[in-house]
Each structure stands twice: as C-alpha cells, then as structure tokens.
Fold each of these.
Amino acid sequence: MLDLKMYINGEWRDSRNKQKRKIINPANGEIFAEAAEGTVEDTKEAIKVAKETFESGIWSEMPASERASYLFKIADKIDEYSDELVHLETTDNGKTLREARFDVGDAAACFRYYAGLITKPDGQTYHVVDPVQAMVVREPIGVCGLIVPWNYPLLMSVWKIAPALAAGNTIVFKPSEVTPVTPTKLFEILEEIELPKGVANLVLGAGPVVGNEIAESHDVDFVSFTGGTKTGKHIMKAAAGNVKKISLELGGKSPNIIFADADFETAVDYALFGIYSGAGQVCSAGSRILVEESIYEKFVERFVERAKQINVGPGDDPASEMGPLVSQEHLEKVLKYIEIGKKEGARLVCGGNRITKNGLNKGFFVEPTVFIDVKPDMRIVQEEIFGPVVVIQKFKDEREAIQLANHTDYGLAGGVFTVDGAKALRVIKKLRAGITWINTYHPTYNEAPWGGYKQSGIGRGLGTYGLEEFQEIKQININLQVEPIGWFSK
Ligand code: NDP
C-alpha cells in the first residue's frame, strides 16, 4: 500500500491531524494507497514557506538559464520513471495505458518547452517622448497557488508547475483528493533533482479545506485553477480578499460540427475519439455532435456501430480502449445524467448502462452512450456530464450549425469537419470557443494557448501565454537627461 505524504519546505510529512484518505483503483474498487489529509494549518504553513522562499530570492533571482537546467533535469527524470508513472496513472485514474503513456510523454515535453522558453528574449522597449526611454520587463508574481482536477492528474499538474517554476515563482500545489498519486511522484522527482527547499510545496487534501485556503490566503499572489465551473466561481469570490490574480480553466460542452461534404469515415472516427477518449472525462470533449441533416441517419448508424465495438476494460489491460470512470461518486453522477436524458425524452440508441460483466462489476465502467432526438435546452445538451455520453443533433445549414454550436454557457472548444476550407474557417471564426479544430479533434500542443471563452474560464495556459500568466509586467522609464524637470517655478 502506498503511503502518500505532503512535501513542505523539502520535508515529507503527514497532516497535523494525522488523518488519511483512502485512494481507490477505479478499475476494481480496491484501496491501493493512503494519502495525508491536509488541514488549513498545513496549508498555511506551506504558504508561509513559499512566501519566505520567494522573498529569499534563491529561486526568483536565480539566472533563468540555471532555473531552466532544473526543469530539464525534471523532464529527464520523468522519462526515466516513465513506466512507473504510466502504471501509477492507470491505477489511480483508470486511464488506458495508451492514454497514460501519452500524458507522461507530454509532461516531460512541457517541462522542456518552458525550460527553453524562459531563456528566450522577452520584454519590450517603447519610443516615447525624449529624453525618456521606456521599457517593459517581466517578473515572477510571487507565491502561486495551483489547484488541479483528477482527469489528467500528472499532465494538469505539469501544465501549471512547469511555467510557474520557469518564471521564478514559488508554489503551493494541491492535486485532486481523488488522484494524488502521480503528482506526489512528481514531487519526489523535484526532491531528487534537488530543487531548492521551499520552492515547490505539496499539500494533499480536500478542495473546500486546502483549496479554499489557497484561494483565500492574503499571502498567495496568484491562483491558477483547473476544474469545474461551479468551483471556479467559488475561487473567484474567495480570491477577491486580496485582489489576487486568477486564471480559471473550467468545464465545457463542446460542439463537433460534421458537414455532409466531410470525409465520412474520418469524421466518424474523430467524433468517437472526441467523446470516448478518457471515457469522456476530458474538459474539451466533443460531447455535442452536430450533423448536417442529409447525412444524419447514416452518421448515427455508423457512429453507434463503432461505439458498440469499443473495448471497455481496466486501463492496465493493453487490449482496453476505454477505461472506467474515476470514482464511485462520479459513476453515480454520470448514470444520473443518463436517467435525466431518458426522462427528458431523448432517445437512447447506444449504451446507457453500467458495465458489470466480464469481471468489471467492482469497477466504475459505463457503456459508450448515445442520445439522439434531443432538444437544445435539454439538460443533457446543456450541462457537462464528463462521461462517455454524447448527444447527436441535426442541423439544416451553416447558419443553424453555428447557432446550435454557440447555444451554451460554455466556450471551451469545438471542431468542424468539411473538405470546404473556406466554410471550415468561416464556421470556426463564428464559434465562441478558445480551442478549435478543423478535420481533427483534441490534439493539444505545449506551444499553443489553452483556455476558454464564456463560462469555460479566464486566461490561457500553455505556450507563451501560459508563461505570461505566471509573470507580472513592469514598466520602467529612464530619464536619459539627468536634470531638474523645472515644473514649478520656485
Ligand atoms: P472540481 O472543480 O470539483 O475540482 C477541481 C479542483 O478544485 C480539485 O483539486 C478540487 O479538490 C478543488 N476544489 C474543490 N472544491 C474547492 C473549493 N471550494 N475551493 C478550492 N478548491 C476546490 O473539478 P473535478 O476535479 O471534478 O474536475 C472536473 C472538472 O474539471 C470538469 O468540469 C472539467 O471540465 C474541468 N477541467 C477543465 C480543464 C480545462 O483545461 N479547461 C481541464 C481538465 C478538467 P478535491 O478534488 O479535493 O475536491
């Protein structure tokens, strides 16, 4: 049984109250780890350490190239421990081996990207009124509170930790209470490469306790949060106390628009990938498929045929193509939405059940599920289900496709399938969403910004934008003619 501790000021420790949380393998319901259950006092201590370490300058004033060398070492260690990380991620989150391998590889690449970026030129100079030279420099913000969800336990951690450290900040990091295992392994790596003590602090525990303290604390300068929109709204309010900067990467209900002229099999294939990869527990999941009416019946038929063939099973079985949901609680939420869909009058044409056969009865498995004959205002069309449940809607023309696509409070992502390039771009430009794809779905790149419009969030992660989130901008004005201004006569 793994015993997960918190990492504060370079020391591994249990929580003040010695309480532990049981960590469950979602593929079989077995407890495989215990994690320290952090308290408000533990969190305050981690924040204090992060503040003192920031002010000491040991990290914030270190030359960027030296900070970068630490980040490169972390990336190398992630590669070295890749098999272990893949195994842990699969056991804790339920991901298939293929999904976990992709995440671990991308995590190492993200550290390398920010290690490279931080040594590149930044800042600007301005031609203002003589004899003044104006310029802008970028500086670390200070203590950054990082809060992440359970769907990409390692990768979401890295998306925040890599740019935060690259920029010279110190951090207090909280993973989801459901999936603390790979984030804790990442902190073991930070210890192994001898990151200076106090720069990165890990507090395990519940959102309303540890997360809330991070969001409220007057000594935290920036909160970078990824999670649900409801929690994001809470963070916004909690952060107001000291007007701290926030960035929010929130939920989605993203449209995937399939035109009649699209390459049919490609569109079906990506539509399946868009919703069922990660068992639908992906913020950018293409959970609303919009299909042009002339190919609607054919599309639904083929999509359902393919969905039924998806091999659902434990993540650590190489034959599994879709794993379980992350927890019993989440399983119940998803099954409840399936019942809501039926009651709303949508037609269930695929799946809809928990899977209990073939030895899967102890895990949290749900069949790939498809609803058709939905109305735009139904809850299953409007609310984020975060499971392998998709609605397929019909549209008659480009105008209606755009109108249906934007008919949501969310604005995270969206895709368009058509071989008409001009139409593709026309539609994408009308989508109120931050991440979009043409004739593909889901790819994410460390180089490109990630984030949403509307209630899908504020700010952007990844790319140069993701680094800027973790930096303050300072204006410097230099008088090149050192003599009195003479504004007042005497
Ligand atoms: P939650 O919002 O429930 O939790 C996210 C994180 O916030 C967890 O660490 C959680 O801790 C913590 N938290 C919970 N309550 C509070 C609180 N009151 N104050 C501070 N922190 C709190 O989301 P889920 O973990 O359920 O993740 C799924 C959601 O994340 C989905 O909506 C998904 O769309 C979104 N997401 C968005 C992404 C994006 O890039 N836009 C990427 C990935 C996911 P704990 O787990 O301990 O409760």
Amino acid sequence: MHIGETITQFIIEEQRRVGGNGDFTALLNDVFTSCKAISGAVNKGDLIGVLGSAESENIQGETQKKLDIISNDMMINANIWGGHLAAMASEEMDDIYEIPGQYPRGKYLLVFDPLDGSSNIDVNISVGTIFSILRCPDGVEKPTAEDFMQPGTEQVCAGYALYGPSTMMVMTTGHGVNAFTLDQNVGEFILTQKDMKIPEDTAEFSINASNQRFWEPPVQRYVAECLAGKDGEARDKNFNMRWVASMVAEVHRILTRGGIFLYPKDNKDPAMAGKLRLMYEANPMSMIVEQAGGVSSTGRERIMEIQPTGLHQRVPVILGSRNEVERVISYHKE
Ligand code: P6P
C-alpha cells in the first residue's frame, strides 16, 4: 500500500527540475521537522503543561505564551546545525539570531512567526507557523538585520503549517502552491492538494469588525457594501463573514474556497501602520496568495514590493480573491 507522495519526495523532485544541489531541499526538510515537533507540542497542550502565559513580552509588547517560546526554540534547534542558514529572525526575538561559530553557515536566511494566532492556543482554536526563506546577500559572512531588508519578491520559499483538525503544510517556491497533510502514523506530510488556486470571486470577507470606527474610508465603504449585500446599490449578492483571529486559518480557508482577508491600517493608534508584520506574516502569505492567483495589497501598493525598513515592521494587509481585493484597491484610488 502506497502512503502517497511525501513532501520529501515532492521537494526532491522539484530540486531535480530546477537543478539544485540539495542544500535548499535539506533546509526545507529541517523546517518541516520543526513544524512536526511544534504540532506535537500544540496537540498535547495541557497534557504537558505548555499552555498559558510565559509571563514575558516580545518586542511587539505582546505577552508571550509558553508555546510561543517553545515553538521558537524548536525552530531554532531544528535549523541551527544544518549548515544551510546564515542567520534567522523571528517575531519572538528582538534582533536576528546568528548561527553560532561551532556550526557551518549557509547561504539562506530564515524568517518566521513560530506560532501565529497564539492568543487562540489557550482556547484550542487553530494556530500556525509561518516561514519565509531569503538568500543571504553574496559575500556576506556575518549577516546583520540590514541583510534581511529584502522585498517579498526576493523570497525563494514561503509556507505555513496549520495546526488545526489536521496538521497541514502549505508552501510555494514560486512554482504554484501545494498542500500536504501530516499522517501522524507515518510522521510524514503527504501531498493532498496540488496547485491550489484561489477563486477570483467570493462572498465571504474576514475582518475584525470591532475596529470598524477606526477604519479608513475605502475600507468603511467596502465593508458597508458587503453588509448591505443585495439590498444595497453596489453589490448583487449577499456576503458571509468569518474572523478566526488566526491569520494562518483565514489564509488557508481563502486558499481552499476563496475569500478576502483585511487587517487594514486603522487610526486606533495612528502611529501604527497596521497590525500584521511584513517580514514573517504579510510577505510569506502574499507570496502564497499570489502564487495561487490571488492579490495581496496594503490597499495602496503590492505588499511584495515594499522595501522593508525593520525586522518587525507592520503593514496593512488586504489579500485574497482577485476581484474583491482589486475592488478595495480601486476604492483607495478614488
Ligand atoms: P485581532 C494573531 O495575533 C494575528 O497576528 C493574526 O494571526 C490574526 O489575523 C490577527 O493577529 C488577529 O488580530 O486584533 O483580531 O486579535
């Protein structure tokens, strides 16, 4: 009995197609291993005492969950020794993490949010890991944060693990988006959805409606029209709304059945450019969404073309079904 195409087979066959030397493939395998380890910790939850607050804060000023720190450590421990990375960066670490001297360094940079949506972890709602891989600039032996300041178009790989009813790995290396489901018995991610495409139209929008009074006019207009549905002047259909407060779960739903996700700039804190972080949330998710035929924008510019200025920089995010995102962009232009 064939267990199905494993993610290892998939990336090795992709390596053959693009003529890689195996370094990139080995790096991806280390990332997949860390996500399987995180899945195990997330699944056990209270059984092993990993829920609840770590009584510490990250650079974002957000209280860290124990699993935020455990997941971050797992990502570091699985990727520190392989010799494929020059450095790492994470939502949970203020500055970059250099590969210690006793290990060889490689030519890639790994950026990640080890446990996105962790405010949900204590109430057993889906969370995920988001990762992005960049090339370390040529000739740079000891990268600094400056070497990470590359636009999303420079990503060589983007992906997420979704710790939901099943654990899934969804990734792209620029040749389409593929999804793999973890077979807990075998311990391998098995290819379950090939070349995923986001429907161009949708009747489902995702936004945290409690921020409504702070939104900018184009977003106010778009959401009001969705709420009015067929009874309004602008739309010929009614809409449904979803908000899981876990970006990985929202993006996966949109990849699977379409939708539009908005975490726009709001004037709750005018100094903040948005809530979501460019390097390890918006950029990797934008690469995945674009590779699946969707659109990802701040409302004013393509997210993947933003020139980063900081590891933890925030941006407004409007992504998903092409025709809906383009409508919101048009409202920003008016
Ligand atoms: P709010 C999780 O903390 C996160 O970064 C995303 O995963 C999610 O989409 C968003 O924030 C939820 O934000 O303000 O609704 O709690």
